[in-house]
């Protein structure tokens, strides 16, 4: 998990570098085309085109659209926000996922987790720190919107995972994102330099490497054990931002991030506890169930 988070942090740093130099849609088109090339060997081992057979094309399209929305808003916010601030706000995704799991999947969430969600969103407001006009800045709002899109895309994974293979979900997501980027190329195209192509290629490689390590981490250990390490991304983002762009997060960013991380850790722990209780033998008659 530490290796996966480190790779994703490298992706974020490279992304901030590129969005300052090239059109966002061009970055998306090239990056996701390279990701598709890298997953072709896995597709071949999984059975080739047969592994992509699906009756849920609409759901794949919805996931691709949500992923496109998440990436475009993320890149747009990266242009304006310090890297550490962007990552801190993006930690709102688990909070959105908790809310969406109730509204869209009908899952039950106890008052403990609702309080954690409210505290987490309060932490996001502290990070974004409304300006003199009493409004959150538009880049912060854009990053919050990216977190929402990402959370909704992860909810669609919960739907698709019941019938779809991992390689099919990975292929259709990246193919949809690549097509969206290609569609915008006539309006934004500028000739990439060899350096640009190298950086975008590194983005694709670190993204795939991060996914591989993270998937293996979740397969090797319970979520409650490995998920907390995801928050190391904030430390990496702070270090990269300071070294490369001389960015120093303000005190309110650290305070808000601490609140968001604490709420996220608590939600992870409660969900793991709920899963254990659900899998355990039913209590004897008269036993009092714990509120989740």
Descriptive notes:
With about 290 residues, this protein is mainly alpha-helical. The chain has one domain (about 1-275). It is built from twelve helices and no strands. The chain has helices at about 1-20, 25-45, 55-80, 85-90, 95-105, 110-130, 140-160, 165-190, 195-220, 225, 230-245, 250-280.
Features:
292 residues; 12 helices; mainly alpha
Residues in helix, %: over 70%
Estimated structural class: mainly alpha
Low-pLDDT windows of residues: 282-292
Instruction: Write down how many β-strands occur, each being a DSSP E stretch of 2 or more residues.
Output: 0
- Rg, rounded, reads 20 Å
Number of domains: 1
Mean pLDDT: 87
Major sheet size, sense and barrel closure: none
Distance between the termini: 27 Å
How large is the share of residues in beta strands? under 5%
| Count of runs of 4 or more consecutive helical residues | 12
Outline of the structure:
The protein has 292 residues and is mainly α.
Secondary-structure blueprint:
Blueprint: H1 2-19, H2 24-45, H3 57-78, H4 83-90, H5 93-105, H6 111-128, H7 138-160, H8 166-188, H9 194-220, H10 223-226, H11 232-245, H12 251-279
